[in-house]
Design a protein that fits this description.
The chain is of the alpha/beta class. The chain folds into 2 domains: 197 residues, Rossmann fold, CATH 3.40.50; 135 residues, 3-Layer(aba) Sandwich (Rossmann fold), CATH 3.40.50. Helix content is 44%, strand content 14%. The protein has 18 helices and 14 strands. β4, α5 and β5 form a beta-alpha-beta unit. α5 packs parallel to α6 and α10 packs across α12. It is elongated, with a radius of gyration of 23 Å. The N and C termini lie far apart (57 Å). The model has no long low-confidence stretch (mean pLDDT 96). It binds uridine-5'-diphosphate-xylopyranose (UDX). Uridine-5'-diphosphate-xylopyranose binds next to α10.
């Protein structure tokens, strides 16, 4: 099937590449000509494991191409995905900014020739799909189309495997005809009996927010339990195992840390709060998760400050990891963006390293010393803080680190190491949720 993807960000590029891998003829379109030029030159603008190979293979096999020409891209398509950004509005308050979504709808409308399915892939507030349909109808009353809501559940760093082996495909639509097109698009998944959840437009849009919000609640829950564990001298790693083995709860997303970040949880939780408020109701549990998440980052600053004897002023701190999670270069809403400035503000000297995120991080945190390796940032440090659990940090040469530090203080915000092992290696070790 001829498919056009509008938007070549994390979602659009991964979805376009994977659909071309399914054998569809995909054009990934973006207004940003610089981005399209880089893609045409074979450069992938984001770090996502496996994406580079997948794109190159499908470009080579002529299943995947890139264009800035929306009109041309839409004319030949039977399905047009809208995968543009829906950032939080600049005026704050957590409202999702739908400018790009409605802009795409308005621009594509005049070029719809035969029956076309317009598919909302972006994470959008409830009611957006119907509004997209109105925009298209007003712009081109002759257009023969249906709008479908088809939210994605891709995790950065695992996006391709999440697409190829999803737990479910969710789509909301009003017409059987559109539903048939969606089944044809996702046919390879249909054949492998991936569960398809067909529902209304509103329900599909809300499933996305509900999924992310629930995962965020789980993270804030275990972070809160970690705080209680520290207070009663319990061990949150063992607690998480004991709780997570309950089949009704599950052990995933029960690992404490410096708080959740990324381009989704922070944005989607706030957007869900707004959706509830705008419809005269509330999402109090999600609201609490948002508050706990903000408090968790502040707790990490205090944890580091206390470990340094009450003040970080004039102290050197080595930071391992900047991105909001491993296997990505994405710095959006990373806890480091809150924690590090709070330390620097009090006069700490920060030496930082990240396997993939330093290029992005330098745009937002230009004043810190960027190390070439994790060992660079540990030299002369009064403390080392493990912020992001990259594999590169899981088997560090502890003797080498300890011998170059000013004081052997290791603050592990992801509980990667075990207290006994670190004590034997001569460190004062501090984790999250276990004393
Ligand atoms: C998330 C959802 O998982 C995905 O389904 C959705 O499509 C997009 O948002 P992503 O934001 O890429 O994916 O990251 P995810 O792996 O979910 O982690 C989100 C945040 O939670 C990260 O900051 C991570 O460090 C944190 N986290 C996750 C924890 O602190 N503890 C955990 O146990 C799991």
């Amino acid at each position: 099937m001829n498919i056009t993807m509008i938007g070549t960000g994390y979602v659009g590029l991964v979805t376009g590449a994977c659909l071309s891998e399914f054998g569809h003829q995909v054009i990934c379109m973006d207004k940003d000509s610089g981005k399209i030029e880089r893609l045409l030159a074979g450069e992938i603008p984001i770090y996502e494991p496996g994406l580079n190979e997948l794109v190159k293979k499908n470009v080579r096999e002529n299943h995947l191409s890139f264009s800035t020409d929306l009109a041309q891209s839409v004319k030949s398509a039977k399905a047009v995905f809208i995968a543009v950004g829906t950032p939080s509005q600049r005026r704050g308050g957590g409202y999702a900014d739908l400018t790009y979504v409605y802009g795409a709808a308005k621009e594509l409308a005049p070029h719809l020739t035969d029956y076309t399915v317009v598919i909302d892939k972006s994470t959008v507030p409830v009611g957006t799909a119907r509004q997209v349909a109105r925009v298209i109808k007003e712009t081109n009353p002759e257009a023969d189309f249906d709008v479908v809501s088809n939210p994605e559940f891709l995790r950065e760093g695992a996006a391709i495997s999440d697409f190829m082996r999803p737990d479910r495909v969710v789509f909301g639509c009003d017409s059987e005809k559109a539903s048939e097109v969606l089944k044809e698009i996702y046919n390879p998944l249909y054949l492998t009996s991936t569960p398809f959840v067909k529902t209304s437009l509103e329900t599909a849009e809300l499933i996305k927010y509900a999924s992310n919000a629930f995962l965020a609640v789980k993270v804030s829950f275990i972070n809160e339990m970690a705080t209680i564990c520290e207070a009663v001298d319990a061990n949150v790693v063992e607690l998480s195992k004991g709780v997570g083995l309950d089949g009704r709860i599950g052990g995933k997303f029960l690992h404490p840390g410096p708080g959740y970040g990324g381009s989704c949880f922070p944005k989607d939780t706030l957007a869900l709060l707004r959706i509830a408020q705008e419809h005269g109701t509330a999402a109090r549990i999600v609201e609490a998760a948002v508050e706990v998440n903000a408090a968790q980052k502040a707790r990490m600053v205090k944890k580091i400050r206390d470990a340094l004897g009450g003040s970080e002023t004039g102290r050197t701190i080595g930071i391992l990891g900047l991105t909001f999670k491993p296997e990505t270069d994405d710095m959006r809403d990373a806890p480091a963006l809150t924690i590090l400035p709070a330390l620097a503000e009090k006069g700490a000297r920060l030496k930082v390293h990240d396997p993939q995120g330093m290029t992005e991080a330098k745009k937002m945190l230009p004043d810190y010393e960027y190390g070439e390796s994790p060992y660079d940032v540990c030299e002369d440090a009064d403390a080392v803080v493990l912020m992001t659990e990259w594999n590169q940090y899981r088997a560090l040469d502890l003797e080498r680190i300890r011998s170059t530090m000013k004081t052997p203080l290791f603050i592990d915000l992801r509980n990667v190491y075990t207290p006994d092992k670190m004590k034997k290696a001569g460190f004062t070790y501090i984790g999250v949720g276990r004393n």
